Amino acid sequence: MPDMRSLLRVGSEGPDVPVDLTAIDPQSTPGLPGRKVTGSDPKLWARGEVERIGAELATQQEMLFAQGTVEPELGRSVLLVLQAMDCGGKDGAVKRVAGAMNPLGLHIKAFGPPTPEERRHDFLWRIRKALPPAGYVGVFNRSHYEDVLVVRVMGLAPESVWRPRYKKINDFERRLVDSGTAVVKVMLHISHDEQRERLLSRLDDPTKQWKFNPDDLEARARWDDYQEAYAEALARCSDAAPWHVLPANRKWYRDWALAHLLRETFADLKLSYPKPEYDVDAQRRRLEADG
Ligand code: AMP
Ligand code: MG
C-alpha cells in the first residue's frame, strides 16, 4: 500500500511553479490496488474499506479527544481543509469519512460569503475562531483559500489585497502546525463535464434542488480562471502544510483516498490512550471495600 499523502501531494516544484491540474485526471484512481486485491468490483471493495478505516479513525479520534482532555496544553488537534469547485463532493466526503467519527469530537465548519461582521475583520479572523480546540478534529468545508480563489476570480478585491494573502496564509498555517495541529489540505478535483452532470442531477431531483444556486453557473463559466487560481494557490501555499489533489469524479475512490489521508495524518501523531494519574489498584480496592 503506497503512502497516499506522497502520492497525492502537489507543490513540490516550489511556490513559483503553478500546479498543473490538467495533468491530474479527475477520473483516475491513484494508489488503488489492482483486481487481485479488490476483486471484480473495486467500488464495492472501496466502500468496505472506508467502513473499516472509518472504525480506525474513530478510535484515533477518541485517543486524540482523551489526550486533549487530560493534557490540553499539548494542543494536539487535526484540521482537514477541503476545497473544491461546486459539486466537487465536499459534503459527501464529510458525511462518509468524518461521519465515522464521534460527533462529540468533531468541529465541522462550512464557510460561505463573509457576513457584514466578518467583512469588518481580517480574512483570517473567522478562520481562527473556527479552529479545532485541543483534542478535536476540525473540518473546513471551504476555508481561507476562498480569499485567494473566489475573491480573485470574481474580482471581489483587487490584486493588491489578495496577492499578499498567500504569505499571510503560509505564516498562519506555520503557526498552526507549530502549535500542534496536524493540517491536511485536500482539493477534490472533478472535471468540467462531471460538474455539469452533478449540477443537472441537482436540478432533476426535487430533494436536491435546494443545493443548486444560480450563482454556481457564474462560477462554472469562469472554470479556467478558477483552475488557474487553484494552480497558483496550491503551489504558493504548500509550505507549512502541503496540498493534496484528490481525483474526485469517482465518489467511492474519493472517500477511500480521503480516509487514507486521514489515517496517515493520525498515524504521525502516534496517539495512545493517556495513562491515568491515579492509582488504578488503589481505586479498585476502595470500590471493592465498598461492598
Ligand atoms: P456552498 O459551499 O455551496 O454552500 O457555497 C458557499 C459559497 O460561499 C461559495 O460560492 C463560495 O465561493 C462562497 N464563499 C466562501 N468564502 C468566501 C469568501 N471569503 N468570499 C466570498 N465568497 C465566499
Ligand atoms: Mg454550492
From TrEMBL:
InterPro entries per UniProt: P-loop_NTPase, PPK2-rel_1, PPK2-related
Output the superkingdom of the source species.
Answer: Bacteria
GO MF annotation list: phosphotransferase activity, phosphate group as acceptor
* Domain Polyphosphate kinase-2-related, chain residue ranges per copy: 57-265
Q: Which UniProt keyword terms apply here? A: Transferase
Matching entries from Gene3D superfamilies are given as: P-loop containing nucleotide triphosphate hydrolases (3.40.50.300)
Its GO biological process terms?
polyphosphate metabolic process
Looking up NCBIfam families in the UniProt record yields: PPK2_rel_1
**Entry protein name:** PPK2 family polyphosphate:nucleotide phosphotransferase
Native organism: Asanoa ferruginea
